[in-house]
Amino acid sequence: MMAAEVSELCVPVPWGEIRGRVWGPEHGRPVLCLHGWADNCGAFKTLIPLLPKEFRYIAVDLVGHGLSSHRPPGDFYSLPEYVTDVLRVTDALQLRKFSVIGHSMGGDAAGMLCLLQFSALYPEMVDTLVLLDNYGILPTDSKEICKVVRQGMDQTLQFEKKTEEEKWRVYTYEKAVQRLQAANPTLSERSVHILLERGLVQVEGGFVFSRDLRVNFKNIVRISLEQSLEIQSRIQASVLAVLTDKGFDKILSEPAQRKFTSALLEDLKNRNHTIVRVPGDHHVHLNNPEVIAPFVSDFLRTKVLSQSINRQHKL
Length: 315
Description:
By secondary structure, this protein is α/β, with parallel strands linked by helices. It contains 10 helices and 10 strands.
């Protein structure tokens, strides 16, 4: 069990700040933790205390989520921007080599896609990669790309015409709980309250959700299956994919994407990455972290700590 060394993270960016939380000793081996779409770094609150204490876990609220700043008016939320945000965090913290844990496909564009593409673009920085309920970089059917991109643009333009009162609905805390439970029925009651710790902001008359509503819009940067597999082939890190029996396929936002999951899974197998299946749903890492903690812990110890000790002995 990890000691209760927890602190707040704040990294300045040109339009505001990226916030998060940090667990573990100051000189522990760094592990960057990225949540899924519409969640926040609280998604790792129950899992991290069950992981090896030799590491320093840096869990961020992705831009537009949790307590991190929203993108400026007129900007889109898309994969290249998220990748750049991660690079801003690692640069600010002077991380040269680290592990990463990420959850979900992130809906249309968020943490997991960002994590995978970051690992492909900067392979020298990432030594191990843990995918929680994720198969790889999910592509879009080439025949659907134009339609989906248009949807994202139309959603953004329609949103910009709304007044501030129309954009931000005020809830009582109880109504906010009901709203999150309705949107994510697999979340336990405890998990809902954990996510709302960073997912709500108090205003006059009640609470508003802290995330930027624009993260709900279709991601306008899309790739084909061929491009997806090419990007994945450039990942040099050791990969652990923890898949749930009732999770991933049920949260895909586009039905056409389902046909790509077998190809992505086969690609992971062909590259000799580690794949395990566990009982549970999409948020098992938050609802029942004890189910996946042993696999993640063993992987980090084997692929990071053991290899580090072996390198030291060779020196």
